[in-house]
Amino acid sequence: MDSPLHHFELHPIIPISVMGVDLSINKAILAMWIGCALVFGLFMLAGKKGGSVVPSKLQSIFEIAMEFIQGMVEEFIGKEEGKKYFSFIASLFIFILTCNLIGLIPGSYTITSQLAVTGAFAFGIFILTLVIGFAKHGMHFLSILVPPGVPKIMIPLMVPIEIISMLARPISLSVRLFANMTAGHTVLAVLFGLAMSASIWIGWMPFGFTVIINGLEIAIAFIQAYIFTTLTCVYIGDVIKLH
Amino acid sequence: MVNSNGFRQGMGIAFKLGLEMAVATALGGFIGYGADQILGTKPWGLVVGIVLGSAGGMLNVYRAAMQMTKELEEEEKKTDNPQDTDEQN
Questions:
Q1: Contacts of B60 in chain A (CB under 8 A)
Q2: pTM for the whole structure
Q3: Measured over all CA atoms, what is the biggest interatomic distance in chain B, rounded to whole angstroms?
Q4: For residue A176, what are the β-bridge partners?
Q5: By C-alpha distance, which of A14, A240, A24, A20 is closest to A136?
Q6: Which residues of chain B neighbour A227 with C-beta distances below 8 Å?
């Protein structure tokens, strides 16, 4: 019997090694490519001929999604500033959502269940916020480390606290997405293992739970993609407004 | 779309806040431990690190909670307004 974490392991399908660096193609990379292709293909299909005035079914789905993301960006970053970051936030949301949903197809792979992937997203966003902050406010950006209304004596204490709380943000951002996806898929694997190892007289019960939890996982895929992008908006908005 | 449902919104809040404190405390602890290893100030770096880390975690949770109460208040204002009947849950 395989361990329930077995399906998170990655084995190279096409081994590629460039100067000692492992660049093998494995299941996760295939899933990521499929995700990219799916997002790109669907958007090309939805927006062909620049979009019609009377939208087709597919086009109206994407219009609703875009309006939803636009509302989010405007709320957290601001109407004027938000326009610059809208395309980034929208791609982030759609890509994470697609990858989460692809993982729910049996036999495929959830790339967001790898800490390396979510960590790379979060680290990139952290660097992005620093770059935006320094580009926008210059050296004055460092005042983000001192909350407003703090007495001067408290500043040496508040600066390390603020630094730690800032460094903790990308970690919690990446761990949250990774842990939720991993936990959900592990539960599915355990229940399915139970269903397979029992006889059919009792095995239908865990199998039924698998179906129900799969439905819950679809909701979690949406929630986690939403939380990830909302927090990204909040962090960018914090850096732009500086308190 | 996603935030239109009370249950899902509640789940979102639960997922959001749970991690913040643990991560910041652990990070402060790690930084303190690393400082101990380099500077040779055996227990004190860890102690100070954990204290500062948990303070940072509480700060993060406090800010997230403030953000949420602000959102909730705005929503309540919207529902109080009888003209906005198209925003149903």
A1: 165, 168-169, 172
A2: 0.82
A3: 66
A4: none
A5: A240
A6: 12, 15-16
